Amino acid sequence: MKAAIVMEAGATPLYGEFREPVPASGEVRVTVSAAALSNVVRSRASGNHYSSSGQLPFVVGIDGTGRLDDGCRVYFALPQAPFGSMAERTVVHPSQCISLPDDLDDVTAAAIANPGMSAWAAFKERARLLKEERVLVNGATGTAGRLAVQIAKYMGAGKVVATGRNAEALKAVAELGADVTIPLGDCGDAFEDALKEQFGDDGIDVVLDYLWGQSAERILVAGAKAGKETVPIRFVHVGSASGPDITLPGAALRSSAITLLGSGIGSIPLEKLMESIHDLLQATVSGGFEIVTRTFPLSDVEQVWATADGTARTVFQM
Questions:
Q1: Would you say residue 50 has pLDDT above 60?
Q2: Once rounded to an integer, what is the mean pLDDT over residues 107-118?
Q3: Average pLDDT along the chain
Q4: Which of 99, 125, 256, 285 could disulfide-pair with 224, CB 3.0 to 4.6 Å?
Q5: Distance CA 271, CA 267 (A)
Q6: Would you state the torsion angle of the CA atoms of residues 164, 122, 118, 141, taken in this order, to the nearest 10 degrees?
Q7: Bridge-partner residues for 312, per DSSP?
Q8: Does the pLDDT of residue 310 top 90, yes or no?
Q9: Over the range 52-77, which residues count as b (16 or more CB within 10 Å of their CB) and which as e?
Q10: 228-268 pLDDT, tens per residue?
Q11: Residue 254 near residue 248, CB atoms below 8 Å
Q12: At what angle do helices 213-226 and 189-200 cross, to 10 degrees?
């Protein structure tokens, strides 16, 4: 069968022939229709993600949409290695398949599931977001961040503050529901001052962080300085687009009620992640969630892999 295959660690996936997957006991076969290229897919393909299997060669892709042998149209996640989602067929455990709503198309479902789940699961399982609470999304101009703003509003957030580096993209995020937008700039004093105003005004209950790095440092310090004494702030780390590490003064934690949390594979049980994806997919059409997609045939994977960016979700069709 045709597939996108990583032959060597760190190498660009190649379009070629890979052996047919044969379902073992307790597995089902999926004929794949669409699979999205996400940051976690890139990271696992390079062998740098903490959930990478290290097995070579392998088919890239962690999720997608397709049909089971009985014709049921599904979203599926985490195929059995060395098989991935960017192939004509793959094998998964039935518990990692979700029936798709009739009004949700395969491409949109494949595109929205991973970035949307990152916000949905973080809000529901880690932050335990309550209605009317105030949310700050750090890195709101990327695909996942834009969805996080929309999902926060859908879940009843009373106020959403969004940060981002691109001024024009921040305007678009405001149109999606952000009440306040703050440009990152150089993540210096001006950025921190704008954050203090938000923490000291109505306050911020939940921070959803897709960037880490210097902007996360500034948010934590601003929350510690300007947040109301003893009032909890749940800081949920989801992604590290700006860097893998931060430097955090211990006083920022001792002097505040900030709680640091992570959200992802390993911090949330798989069944809860799948439950979050199910709820997201059910809400996508009724909630009017918007996601920009670019579609390509899988045969273009070598050319597209290096050029795809965060302005749209790249989806390969088999």
A1: no
A2: 97
A3: 94
A4: 256
A5: 12
A6: -10
A7: none
A8: no
A9: beeeeebbbbbbbbbbbeeeebbbbb
A10: 999 999 999 999 999 999 999 999 999 999 999 999 989 99
A11: no
A12: 40
Tell which phi-psi region holds residue 177, choosing left (phi > 0), alpha (psi between -120 and 50) or beta. Answer: left
- Tracing tokens 């909630």 back to the chain, one arrives at 287
Radius of gyration of the chain (CA): 20
Nearest to 214 by CA among 181, 182, 191, 235: 191
How far from chain centre, in Å, is Cα 221?
25
pLDDT, position 201: 81
Distance CA 34, CA 100 (A): 13
Residues β-bridged to residue 58: 6
- Residue with more model confidence, 278 or 9: 278
Size (the chain), residues: 318
Angle, helix 106-121 to helix 270-284, in steps of 10 degrees: 120
H/E element, 221: helix 213-226
What is the model's pLDDT at position 73?
98
Give me the mean pLDDT over the 117-142 stretch.
97
Q: Do 298 and 64 meet the contact criterion of CB atoms below 8 Å apart?
A: no
CA angle 189, 242, 77 (to 5 degrees): 140
Comparing C-alpha atoms, which of 56, 100, 104, 64 is closest to residue 81?
56
Parallel, antiparallel, or unpaired for β 134-138 and 97-99?
unpaired
Return the number of other C-beta atoms located less than 10 Å from residue 277's C-beta. Answer: 23
The set of residues, in sequence order, having a beta carbon less than 8 Å from that of 275 and lying 6+ positions away, is none
In contact, 181 and 162? CB cutoff 8 Å: yes
Matching residue, tokens 């999304």: 137
